[in-house]
Amino acid sequence: MIRFINCVRRRADISSEEFRQFWNDPKFDALIGRVMAYTGATGHVKDLTLMVEANVLMREWRGGAAPPFDGVLEYSWANASQLHSVLNSEQCSVLMQAMLDYQKQFVDLEHSCAFFTEAKE
Q1: pLDDT of 7-25, one tens digit each?
Q2: Beta bridge partners of 5
Q3: Contact 7, 107 (CB under 8 A)
Q4: How many CB atoms lie within 10 A of CB 88?
Q5: What is the model's pTM?
Q6: What one-character-per-residue DSSP string does the chain give?
Q7: Is 103 in contact with 109 (CB distance < 8 Å)?
């Protein structure tokens, strides 16, 4: 299984509440649905970081590590055989630009990260 994981931090000028409004907006869900349909993703997960004391304790235990990401968006595919050609298409470029444009409203792209992983099942 192949996964694309996008760990995001909110922009400094956006409150946690505003970030959550963008994150939970039906427009964002519709865009995620378009990405899934076009790329053939078999699943996705869209998580928000809990605003709990346990996260503060984890940072302290780890020696003052950076604060957690505000959200994590993950897509999954059964295999990567067709993913390469899909990702290199003009249609995918347009779709990814739409996702980027939406996220720029509330995501600090410089301090966020995105990467592919291979999951052994």
Answers
A1: 999 999 999 999 999 999 9
A2: 74, 115
A3: no
A4: 9
A5: 0.85
A6: -EEEEEEE-B-TTS-HHHHHHHHT-HHHHHHHHHHHHHHT-SEEEEEE----HHHHHHHHHTTSPPPPPSEEEEEEES-STTHHHHHTSHHHHHHHHHHHHHHTTTB-GGG-EEEEEE---
A7: yes
